[in-house]
Structure formats: C-alpha cells, structure tokens
Design brief:
- The structure is a single chain.
- The chain has 404 residues and is of the alpha+beta class.
- It contains 12 helices and 14 strands.
- The strands form 3 sheets. Strands 2-3-12-9-14-7-6 form a 7-stranded mixed sheet. The protein has a 5-stranded mixed sheet with strand order 1-11-10-13-8, covered by helices on one side.
- The radius of gyration is 23 Å and the shape is globular.
Length: 404
C-alpha cells in the first residue's frame, strides 16, 4: 500500500483500513481521484462493511486466517441445497421435536409454545442496542469455546460493543443472507454468545421478572441452591443467580457447534427474535457422535459426515426444530445439540438443575465463579469446605415445592 501511495504524490488523505481488501485497480483509482472514488460496493451508503466487520477482516488478515470454520462451510452447502428443508439425510432417523403447552418432565427435548404476555417478548436486538449498546463482549468465530481448541480460527475473537454487533448482524443479513460459500471469508460469522447483561445494567429488570422468564412446567431448583451458596459466602444472591441467565445475539449463519451443556445441566432456550434451527441427539447417541463427555464436544460434521472418520454417524437418530419467536426449547441433561441462526437471532439461555441432575450442581459454581482469586489460601480452603457442605445439602434436598 505504501509503495502504491508513493506513486500518487498528489494524494493527501489517509487510506481507509478496508483498502487492504480492495483490488489493486480500485486502490489506484481511489488514489488518483484524491480519495473521492471508492469501489462501487463500498461506496454505497449501505456498503458491505461496518466497524466490527472491518476489525474482524483486519485481524483475520494479520493472523493469517484464510478460510472459514469447517462447520460454517458445511452449513453453506446445506443452506444452498435445503430449500428450507432442514432434516438430516444419511442417518437412521431425523424426526421433529415434540411440541407441548408445558414442559412436563424431561424425558425428551420439547418445544413449549409461545406464552401469553411473555416477559422477554420485547427484548430484541433493537432493545439490547438501545439499553446496553456500549456494553462490550468477546465475539467468536467458533461457539462454544473449548479448552482444547488449537487452531487460530478455533480461538479467533474480536471485542465489540453490543451496538457494533447489532450493526454487523444487520449488515450481514442484507449483504449475504443466503450464506454463499464464496463469501465465507469476506463475511465471517461471529457470535456474541453467552453475554451476561443481567449481572450489570439489566440487573434491576432481572430481579423484577426472572421468575417469569422460563417456560411453564419446568422444575428448576437452581435459584434455591444458588441462594444457599450465596448466603454461605455472604454474596448477593440475585447477582449470583443472574450468572445463570445469558443472552446470545447471532448474525445469520452463526453456529453453535455440536456439544452438550456443561456441568450436567438441563437447558432452556427462549427465542426472542429471528429463527434458529436446532439438531438434537439423545445421550444414547454418544458413540454415534464420537463424542466425549469430558470435553463436551463432538467432531462430526452433521450435514456432510466423513464415512471414513465417522462411519457410525449413519446409525444415529436425531430431532430437528426451527425455533420461532416466543417459543422455548427445553433440552434435558446429557443431550447433544447443534444450532444455526437462519435469521438475525436473539435468544435467552438458562442452564438449570433439579432432582434429576442435582449431583452436578456444585460443578456449576466452580465454573461460574473464580474462587482462585479469593484471597488467602485459608480463605480458599474455607470456600472449598463450604462447597463440599453445600454439595451434601443439595444431595439431601427433597423434591418439594420450589422456594420463591
């Protein structure tokens, strides 16, 4: 770029950051015009760049990320062929997730239909942009993040504000809503996932309405046991339980790769805006998924699996659902799931525990709270004793009515 600019001494301005992605002829034309003539698509008012996308492209170039993630490339092919039919081919069975008015029991994944006067119905992208636009979070190419992610693309992150991400998601939907594979690098699919607004500026709203966020029929003892933990360590229990409610905002084509929820939790997912397609596999399919509970992830490409590396996947049974605004997907402990946003999407997620999976609850406390930073060794030993005592209390708890 410097060499090219030296050939145009009459140019007095600054080259924009995105110029490194322009063709050589476009750069020369821009310099010769004194900065008035930009490439046609980037010169448009609604051109294909924004602050977050420009930073992501620059960082990808500097870190030599030259291709999209494997799961996104696979999804691009599926999207091209699907014609809005999202069933999986090449496996024993791909049925629909059952739909229920209430989540009565957790024998299978279920979809609970839209509730009347649902508290989160207005918490769409525009709401979060308006209320929390300056909040900053890490946006990832691969979600969820796993400890053994080794490749640069696996751990690629860009910091962005909520307002920047909303702008980015809207831009991608305009410019590449069909997720064309040839655009996979030009329009990288970042996710703003696992964001915790209820621990900060949205805490007053959360305290007022958290009991009304979940679907009817779910038995959830999480708040009851978090309150025991908070009281034992003199913590604000509302702030502690707020860490178990997250918001994910995703652009069209953003993916949650095949995994199971950590700490043996059940999970519900409220769809606030847009649509997402979910694929679910019961715990009995773990061998067919080549999955490891220790890592919580599966390496299988569910759309175009390798017959050589993963031949058993052809014997798998799956459930599929397209989740619409207002619906809630309830996923039992131990189930494996994959999701992809087919429109700009906002979901609220809540992992939860009850009598069926209570043995794993205290694992979640170690995941959600950094006890290593809690002062002296004596204090950390006291925390360890409190956690052990809490574990025993949880195991001894009876299946009584939930404490409000």
């Amino acid at each position: 770029l410097d060499a090219m600019r030296a050939r145009f001494p009459g140019f007095r301005g600054a080259l924009p950051e995105e110029a490194r992605f322009w063709a050589k002829a476009d750069i020369e034309k821009f310099l010769a015009s004194g900065g008035t003539s930009r490439p046609q698509e980037t010169g448009q008012r609604s051109g294909p760049s924004c602050a977050l996308l420009s930073r992501a492209r620059l960082k990808m170039a500097s870190e030599r990320v030259s291709e999209a993630t494997a799961e996104y490339r696979s999804f691009c092919q599926k999207f091209r062929e699907s014609r809005d039919d999202w069933t999986l081919s090449g496996i024993v069975e791909c049925g629909d997730v059952p739909r229920m008015p209430v989540a009565d029991g957790l024998r299978s994944a279920v979809v609970v239909e839209k509730q009347r006067d649902w508290k989160a119905r207005l918490w769409n992208m525009e709401f979060w942009r308006r209320e929390c636009g300056e909040a900053v979070w890490l946006c990832r190419l691969r979600c969820p993040h796993f400890q053994d992610d080794a490749e640069v693309v696996d751990s690629f992150v860009v910091e962005a504000s909520v307002e920047e991400y909303v702008e980015y998601a809207r831009l991608l939907h305009r410019a590449d809503r069909k997720c064309a594979e040839e655009n996979a690098v030009a329009y990288p699919r970042l996710s703003l996932g696992g964001w915790l607004p209820f621990c900060e500026v949205m805490r007053p709203i959360f305290v007022e309405c958290w009991r009304q966020l979940g679907p009817p029929g779910v038995k959830d003892f999480t708040a009851r046991w978090v309150r025991l933990f908070a009281n034992a360590l003199n913590l604000d229990w509302h702030e502690a339980v707020a860490r178990y409610y997250s918001v994910s905002i995703q652009a069209t084509g953003a993916i949650d790769r095949l995994h199971t929820a950590s700490c043996g939790s059940h999970l519900w997912v409220n769809q606030v805006e847009g649509r997402k397609v979910f694929y679910l596999f019961s715990p009995q399919e773990v061998n067919n998924l080549y999955a490891g509970y220790s890592t919580g992830q599966s390496p299988v490409d569910i759309f175009f699996p390798s017959a050589k590396r993963h031949p058993l996947f052809s014997e798998a049974k799956a459930l599929v659902v397209t989740l619409y605004l207002g619906q809630t997907l309830v996923i039992p402990s131990g189930w494996w799931w994959y999701s992809v946003a087919i429109e700009p999407s906002v979901v609220i997620c809540h992992p939860f525990w009850n009598m069926e999976n209570k043995v794993h609850f205290t694992e979640s406390l170690r995941d959600n709270f950094d006890f290593r930073a809690q002062g002296s060794r004596a204090l950390q030993e006291n925390i360890a004793r409190q956690l052990e005592s809490l574990h025993e209390q949880v195991l001894a708890d009876e299946d009584s009515d939930m404490e409000e």
